[in-house]
Design goal:
With 328 residues, the chain is mainly alpha-helical. It has 13 helices and five strands. The protein has helices at residues 18-31, 43-46, 53-69, 87-96, 101-105, 108-117, 123-138, 151-168, 213-221, 238-251, 255-262, 267-293, 296-325; strands at 5-10, 36-41, 77-81, 143-145, 176-178. α1 links the parallel β1 and β2 (36-41). The structure holds adenosine monophosphate and tryptophan. The site of adenosine monophosphate has 17 residues, from α1.
Length: 328
Amino acid sequence: MHKKTVFSGIQASGHLHLGNYLGAIRNWKAMQEEYSNYFCVVDLHTITVPQDPIELKTNIREVAGLLIAAGLDEAHSVVFVQSKVRAHSELAWILNCVTPMGWLHRMTQFKEKSEKQKEEVSVGLFAYPVLQAADILLYDAHLVPVGADQKQHVELCRDIAQRFNHRYGEVFVLPDALIPPVGGRVMGLINPEKKMSKSEEKQEDSIFLLDTPDQIRSKIKRATTDSSKEIVFDQQRPGINNLLTIYQLLTGDNREQIEAHFEGKNYKVLKEDLAEVVIESLRPLQEKYALLTGDNNYLDQLLSRGAERAEAQAEAKIHQVTVSMGLR
Ligand code: AMP
Ligand code: TRP
């Protein structure tokens, strides 16, 4: 039986956090046996905003190591670094030439990021979603498991593929985003109105996957709550709702069980319980990460095998694309 193909990517712009884990990585692991998978550290996306070269290099390895530590397995998944497969840049250029500027102007993530950057905004940041489309389309991916913030980018990818196919024939598979019903948008601890993110200025807002137990306890202790007392799921109370959602995702208990568990207890108990759940959930991943990064060659070799496998598929696709356009 032919398995469907999954592609997803993750930036190397900083430390991975619980939002990345619950919104993306842990779902990638859970579904990997059912599909044929490509998981990519998208370093070419990362450089759409300025990066320190030494930090970037470290971050690429850290992200790749964490993907492996989280359970992505070579038997089912090709794990690789985007810049090692040149076809991503090549297809991105080709797709730039079939994508109307107006489509990119509508991307909400670009609007947000460019507001922060002002005059520094690069052409690369504007064209970012086109590179993302190239990533997905090179592998004939059917499904793209991502957090809720990437829905618009995957829809754009579909539109670009459709436009290309219309002009040049049925070259690309039209992909669908796969967004988890719960966990698609884990919020910040201090500011639960905004999603948890990698950005440097929000260290206290995010639980990073490599945080120590003490850091985890201290961050959760300081998480924003409210003046109400009841510990129940309620969208109108973003702080408590977010803490309970994280608890739900990590324990696998349902909402009724969780509300019953915390009935009559105070926020201090919720925070202490949650901290222990987070610490224990991350422990196996942290142990595996320590083990695999202890051997320098292990990760390098794994990534180099991944790039080789990805390249074989990507080059075949580029061939098909360029033939269809009259470039070959
Ligand atoms: P990024 O860190 O932007 O490269 O995101 C990598 C993956 O994690 C993507 O699938 C995102 O949608 C997902 N993700 C990032 N932040 C969050 C969050 N706060 N909650 C849920 N998913 C997230
Ligand atoms: N833009 C995605 C993010 O920031 C990362 C990404 C790049 C991606 N290429 C991709 C995700 C292809 C899914 C498929 O989260």
